[in-house]
């Protein structure tokens, strides 16, 4: 199944509605600095090792994002999740930069 990209408004709506897991595909230092509300850390180069613990339900909706539209990490992580059998994977290609530019809240720390 192809991974579908979502825009900011759709990502925001899904977060507010609940029932979606949001993951940041950047290294931990960037995640600690700022991440989308409720987002979990899943670096793009650690998907195989961390996904079973971070995302135990392969039927859950998952939104993967990284820094911005020029960052490839979210696409890499999302494609790998799809290959691992996750059924409902989306990307937010515009990522954290777009979210913050819109003045939307982020969280920091772990």
The percentage helix is 25-40%
Average residue pLDDT: 96
Q: How would a crystallographer describe the biggest sheet?
A: 5 strands, parallel
Q: In which order are the strands of the major sheet placed?
A: 1-5-4-2-3
How many E-type strands? Answer: 5
The SS-based structural class is: alpha/beta
Q: Which H/E pattern describes the elements? A: EHEHEHEHEH
Count of helix runs: 5
Spans of at least 5 consecutive residues whose pLDDT stays below 50 are none
What's the gyration radius in Å? 12 Å
Estimate the strand proportion.
15-25%
Shape: globular
Q: Roughly how many Å apart are the termini?
A: 32 Å
Protein name: Sulfurtransferase
InterPro entries: GlpE_sulfurtransferase (IPR050229), Rhodanese-like_dom (IPR001763), Rhodanese-like_dom_sf (IPR036873), Thiosulphate_STrfase_CS (IPR001307)
Domain Rhodanese: 16-108
Pfam families: Rhodanese
Written description of the protein model:
The protein has 110 residues and is an alpha/beta fold. It is built from five helices and five strands. It has a five-stranded parallel sheet, with helices on both faces. α2 (28-33) links the parallel β2 (20-24) and β3 (40-41). The model has no long low-confidence stretch (mean pLDDT 96).
What brief labels describe this structure?
5 helices, 110 residues, 38% helix, Thiosulphate_STrfase_CS
